[in-house]
Amino acid sequence: MAYRIAVASTDGIVVNQHFGHAERFHIIEIDEKTYKYSGTREVERVCQGHYHNDSSFDKVIDVLGDVHAVIVAKIGSGASQQLESRGLTVYEAPFPIEPLIEKIMADKLWEVDEWQYPTKN
Q: pTM above 0.85?
């Protein structure tokens, strides 16, 4: 079974997007020995200036419905709690993507985060 991670990045190289500002998520699929890029998913920005659009948030959740975790440069506590309540693990890690994925694999974080269970959303 592959574990899917959505990465908020404008370039697919560095995690450089705030969750609410992201207009795309790069999807990485991990198994126990390898990982691969499996596509980019376009989304509507959740943050509209100084407020959040609940409808846009729900649409992002729908687009990421088969994802187990998200990696973002920054995320507010409310948005993080919303994602976690729907079964996603949230990582705030504004770093290059490849070493992050390698660290997740080396530490087998899906076991710690219980990614082996289906998402709740």
A: yes
